[in-house]
Amino acid sequence: MNYSIVKPTVAAFEVTGRCPLACRHCRAAAVSAGDDPLDTAACKAILKGLADYTRCVLIFTGGEPMMRADIFDLVAYARSLGLRPVMATCGERLDRDAMVRLKEAGLLSFSFSLDGPDAAAHDAFRQSDGAFALVMSAVEAAKSVGIRFQINTTLTRLNADAIDNIAELAVSLGAACWNPFVLVPVGRGEAIRDLLFEPAEYEAVLERIAALKVRLPIALRLTCGPQFARVARQKKIPAADKVPGCLAATEFVFISRTGDVQTCGFLDQSAGNLVAEGFDFGRIWERSPLLCGLRDHGKYQGACGSCCYLDVCRGCRARALTVRGDVYAEDPICRLTQPNRPSSIVHRQSTAGKVHSSPFQQSVLAVIQAPLPLCDRPFETLATKLHITEDALLGEIRRLKTDGFIRRFRPQLNYRALGRTAVLAAAEVPEARLEQTAAAVSTLPGVSHNYQRDARLNLWFTLQGTSTKEIEARLDRLRQSTGLPFYSFAAEVVYKLNVCFDPAGPGPDWFLPVRSSGFSLPNHRAQACTANALTCDEKQAVEAIQQELPLVVRPFDELLKTAGVASPVSLMQALSDKGVLNKIAAVLDYTRLGYTANAMFCAVVDPSLIDAIGRELARIPAVTHCYRRRTCADWPYALYAMLHADTLDRIDAFVRTFAAEWSIIDYRLLPTVREFKKSPVPISFQ
Questions:
Q1: Residues 512 and 533 in one domain
Q2: How far apart are CA 43 and CA 252, in angstroms?
Q3: Contact at 8 Å (CB) between 95 and 48?
């Protein structure tokens, strides 16, 4: 045992599951009617058991705690025990008279939730007209009687753009603190899992929160975002060492409406029931296997278990359980669980990131990286190759996706065949301006990938548009708005574009040409480079298929259901024949297979040899992309290749050997430091 037991300084007591609202993210899945499992006597016994062990802040929460008729009595009793009662509320039943009664009972503070900067945004998020007005009324009532309050906000992809405006609203209302919560998709929140941040998005949000913490004239605390402890220290914001990570099982405890002791309201696992165990809070707190296990950092797995920030962060255990299925797994939205961790992050073991997979899982991952057959039941065809049933294959693919091995499984379109073009662009950005500039680039229409690389040109991104003129106009606007030089490197020849990985990991043959490699790469049909005239049905189909492939028996029927297509397979085949549809295949989270390092190789080569060198690089399994690109005076490199492996040392060793064999003297190896954005560019004919 390598941990100490800390008494909680904050406890949340869910006194009811009733609430007049039906918020889309509600972890309690609260309902408007019903009976409360704990009567007044049981609630008081729980409060007494807690106070006998620790005199802490006590948050009355729900549901909506004001739905209980005895709430004034419970607040007064908690105060009499030496607890410091506060309340988390939606504003229901909180007129001035209620405020006066609560203040007289000893309530010290409120937390009101605002998930948007105005009525339209907040009411839509809360799925209740008038929810914003309810909070505004409660805020004014609290101020009129002199009760302190804070503003809470649930952060999702839906309201991320409004973070600054919501924070400013909290300040203007007179809040003592702004307390954003990062979404944990449990309860009703399970239905909005798609609003959970991607790691790059989450990192950008954390950095914006850090900037706000420095700038705001009120306190700022982040809940369910333990990685903020790391970011605060990296940014060296004032009092960064006081910013906590996850407090579950240490300084925070949650008591459910049935008396269960939990690490928090989002992690629905009981450490023990107070009613069943004689209201002895201390015994549960100190002896529960669940709580003791979470205090033991040696049990943590994946990237969390090997991260040097584990002791200050710990990751969100509830998100790990909800998304990964294991309370000790890595937090799925943390950037440090993703490829290309910054070189400044020192890990406790070099194998961080790789997750064990069975030979059967590896065979499934191999076959689904190849183009999916265009037929009524494509998974049946693949299952036959693997000598298993169609249901067994679909079940395993779903599990692999849930476990994070599959990042995307969707149709991959050829933007060139749709009359679009793209460039690789780069800029030299001062370190102090990198975050701001990267954010501006990521929001630019047509940007699919955006990375920080370890080089003089440190910001690299791909930019799509309908024409070279349109792309250059966007880059010109960037140049004007930032005052920075942005360079564009259009592709002249594509030697290889095949993001495919050996599911067994980067073995000894990973850098050998394909003919002597034990891993056979799927065929990749060359992209068409001319625009094709599409029928109305085909255009409608292109717009409809830009989503995840349904993992069902007839996926194309389901994929094109909204398009009203008579023969989905025939239409998909037509798109393939016209070069619009490259393939339908899985894109893997390669870090979970052990590919935890990647870098871009750029070289100046003899023009008479560049095609031969490009074709040779294309034969190397470790190379996923290889191009000949236009050059510029400040960047004379024409040959580009992306390489993936388990370590940068292996990539560097290969590049040195390859450069010597081909007499390449002037080259650069640009390791990826950070992923700011990685998502397909949506294509529309509107």
A1: no
A2: 19
A3: no
**Residue entry with tokens 């000893």:** 106
Among residues of the chain, what percentage have pLDDT more than 90?
73
pLDDT, tens digit, 9 for 90 and up, residues 180-196: 999 999 877 787 888 89
Amino acid at 93: R
In a domain, 387, yes or no: yes
Distances (CA, A) of 678 to 184, 414, 579, 674: 22, 17, 23, 11
Per-residue pLDDT tens over the stretch 101-147: 999 999 999 999 999 999 999 998 888 899 999 999 999 999 999 99
The amino acid occupying position 92 is: E
Rounded CA gap, 109 and 107, in Å?
A: 6
Q: Give which of 372, 434, 362 is closest to 409, Cα–Cα.
A: 372
Number of domains the chain is built from: 3
Residue in the block written with tokens 């693949």: 382
In single-letter form, the type of residue at position 102 comes to L
Distance between CA 4 and CA 292 in Å, rounded?
9
More confident residue, 176 or 508: 176
What is the CATH number for 189? 3.20.20.70
Both structure tokens of 21: 């609202």
Neighbours of 290 (CB within 10 A): 19
Q: Does 577 share its domain with 596?
A: no
Which CATH number is 489's domain given?
A: 3.30.70.3460
- Give the residue, 365 or 678, on which the prediction is more confident: 365
Query: Are both 597 and 538 inside the same structural domain?
Result: no
Residue 484 CB neighbours (<10 A): 15
Q: Are 366 and 287 found together in one domain?
A: no
In a domain, 83, yes or no: yes
3-state secondary structure of 412: strand
In a domain, 312, yes or no: yes
Q: Distance between CA atoms of 349 and 21, rounded to whole angstroms?
A: 47
What is the rounded CA–CA span in Å between residue 674 and residue 342?
6
pLDDT greater than 70 at residue 520 = no
Task: Report, as an integer, the average pLDDT of 260-265.
Answer: 96
Specify the CATH number for the domain of residue 403.
Answer: 1.10.10.2890
Position 351 scores a pLDDT of: 36
pLDDT at 48: 98
Same domain, 456 and 307: no
- Picking from 318, 340, 374, the residue at the C-terminal end of a domain is 318
Task: Tell me the residue range of the domain where 291 lies.
Answer: 10-318
* DSSP characters over 434-495: HHHHHHHHHTSTTEEEEEEESSSS-EEEEEEESSHHHHHHHHHHHHHHH---EEEEEEEEEE
Contact 81, 48 (CB under 8 A): yes
pLDDT digit string, tens, across residues 375-402: 999 999 999 999 999 999 999 999 999 8
- Rounded CA separation 60/111 (Å): 10
Residue 554 shares a structural domain with residue 537? yes
| Together in a domain, 229 and 363 | no
Among 286, 303, 318, identify where a domain stops.
318
Model confidence over 478-514: pLDDT tens digits?
A: 999 999 999 999 999 999 999 999 999 998 889 998 7
Q: How confident is the model at residue 352 (pLDDT cuts 50, 70, 90)?
A: very low
Judge whether 237 and 210 are in contact, CB under 8 Å.
Answer: yes
pTM to 2 decimal places: 0.54
Does one domain contain both 131 and 239?
Answer: yes
Segment 153-163 shows an average pLDDT of 94
Contact of 563 with 540, CB cutoff 8 Å: yes
Q: How many residues are recorded in the chain?
A: 686
Q: With a cut of 50, say whether residue 25 has pLDDT above it.
A: yes
Question: Per the domain annotation, does 344 fall within a domain?
Answer: no
Task: Give the integer Cα–Cα distance in Å for 593 and 253.
Answer: 36
Specify the range with the lowest mean pLDDT, choosing from 298-307, 317-326, 394-403, 629-638: 298-307
